[in-house]
Amino acid sequence: xxxxxxxxxxxxxxxxxxxxxxxxxxxxxxxxxxxxxxxxxxxxxxxxxxxxxxxxxxxxxxxxxxxxxxxxxxxxxxxxxxxxxxxxxxxxxxxxxxxxxxxxxxxxxxxxxxxxxxxxxxxxxxxxxxxxxxxxxxxxxxxxxxxxxxxxxxxxxxxxxxxxxxxxxxxxxxxxxxxxxxxxxxxxxxxxxxxxxxxxxxxxxxxxxxxxxxxxxxxxxxxxxxxxxxxxxxxxxxxxxxxxx
Length: 245
Description:
Layout: H1 21-25, H2 29-42, E1 48-53, H3 60-71, E2 74-77, H4 78-84, H5 91-101, E3 110-114, H6 120-132, E4 140-145, H7 148-156, E5 158-161, E6 166-169, H8 195-219, E7 222-226, H9 231-241
Parallel strand pairs: 1-3, 1-4, 2-3, 4-7
Antiparallel strand pairs: 5-6
Helix pairs in contact: 3-9, 4-5, 5-6, 6-8
């Protein structure tokens, strides 16, 4: 029997759409009670407005998703913003797309930005626009980092369930059954990996991240996290980094 952990309850966790009753009827009472306990616990946690940044394959999506579940906030990726920025990509269009996405009900307790902003100018403009619109700006920024050999290993071993965006890794997070998604049984695919493209993206990140870190350091909200350890250990460090001082 395929496990149903991580599913939406009543509403689809990613889209916010209502789930059909027959889907809920397949979930065990114990799992429903555990999910209710989790959600009740989330209500005791303070709102969080976080950005998770770092080089390619460092684990931004994985840690952003962990924060989404751990704090009851919405996750918005840089890819979401680029997709929503109709008519071409620019800082203004991407930030406009962000402010629209933040109006969704699932963002009322806060948000986690995955891989955005990427430059200091984007970061400054984003803070300005959010404040102008009466929206609370980012209050914690996590900079993930890991050695290049670790990043390459993670890139090469990735597997993806296209419909949901769930990520697996052949060594660090293999599916229960080889080659298929744990929840749907649908085939996984391996994202195309080009080492030259990876190095270009990494070089660009290193070029832009210096001023980006300086900007958030001046605001006193930058947190550096070593992403080399196992996923759960990194998640615990990220959650600890969000504690108010």
